[in-house]
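Pipeline run #58 for the internal structure catalog. This entry was flagged by the ingest filter as a single-chain record with no existing model, so it goes straight to prediction. Upstream metadata was stripped on purpose; only the residue string is passed forward. Reviewer on rotation: M.T. Logging verbosity set to normal.
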Amino acid sequence: MKLNTPRWWYTRDARHGAVARILLKPLSWLWAAVTARRIARADPVDPGVPIISVGNLTVGGSGKTPVTREAIRLLHEAGINAHGLSRGYGGSLREPTQVNAAIHTAADVGDEPLMLALGGPTWIAHDRVAGARAAAAAGAQVLVLDDAHQNPTLKKTLSLVVVDGETRGDEWPFGDGSVFPSGPMREKLRHGLARADAVVVLLPADAPGVDPELLEAFGDLPVHVARLMPAAPPPKGPIVAFAGIAKPWKVERALDAAGAELIDFAPFPDHAAFREGDLAFLADRAERSHARLVTTEKDWFRLSPEWRARVLSWPVKATFEDEAGFQRLLLGALRAHSAR
C-alpha cells in the first residue's frame, strides 16, 4: 500500500517527525551506501547520441517531468529531433517501446511518459541502455532522460538537477538533509550536486523569487530559474480537486493561487491507483456541491476512460525566466558532444 509523503520530510527542523527520523536512520545509511556503490561501480555506455539527463535529488515532487517536457520542446524549436526516454515507472511494459497515447495506458507505460509523449517521440524501457539504442536507431538526434540522475548506465552529455524552489513558511526542498526513508533525499546533497552540470530551480507560479540561501547551496553550479505555471486557468465555478503526486499539497496551493473556487481537496500518494470507491465518493461530494471534479494532468492519465470523461485535467508547464539562456545551455552541450 502506498503512503502519503510525510510533510515533515520537507522541513529543516528535526523536531518534526523526530522519532520517525531516528528510527529510520539505519535504513537511510543503507540506502545511501547502496546508491553510492552502484554509481561508483558503473561503466556508463555511450549510445551514439547525446544524452541530456533531467533528474532530482529527492524522491519526488521537484517538477522534473515538466522541465523534461520543456527541454524537449526547446530542442524541437531549434530543429533538433529530440526524443524522451523514461523508465516507465508504474507501467507493465519493460522492453523498449515508443509510447503511443492512442493505444497505451498508464498501466502499460506509466503516467509521466504519456505526458512527455504529448510533446514529441517518447520511449520507455526498464533497461535504459536498450531504450537509448532503440530510440537512436529510430532517428533520435538527442535523448532527454526523465528521472535519471541516479541511473549511471548511460554516458551523459549534460546532467540537470531540478530542485523545488518553495521555501516559504518552514519548507525546505532537502528537509534536514536526511536520505530516504529518514528524509526525502535519494543521496547526500553534496554527492548529487558533484555529478550535476547545472541546476534548475522550479518555483511555484506565485513565489516571489529564489531564496538566496537556497542559491548558496549550489555553490558554483549554473542555476536556471523556471516557474510551474498553469497551462490554462482553473475551471470556473466551484471545484473538488484531488491529486496523487509526491507533494499533493502543492496542487491545492496552486489552485488557490490561481483563483480557483476550491470546495474540497483530497491528497493521494504519488502514482496512486485510484480506487472506484474513492472516485465515486469524490464525484458525490462534487455533485452535492454543484462542483466539477478536477485533477492534475499526470493523475488524469491514470484514470479509466469512463472517469476521464467525468474529471477535468488541469495541466501545468515549466516556464523559464531566461528561456533563451536555457536553450543555449542545451544546444551548447550538443555542440560539445559533436566536437569530441
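catalog note: The chain is about 35% helix and 20% strand.
catalog note: The mean pLDDT is 95.
status: ready for reviewer M.T.
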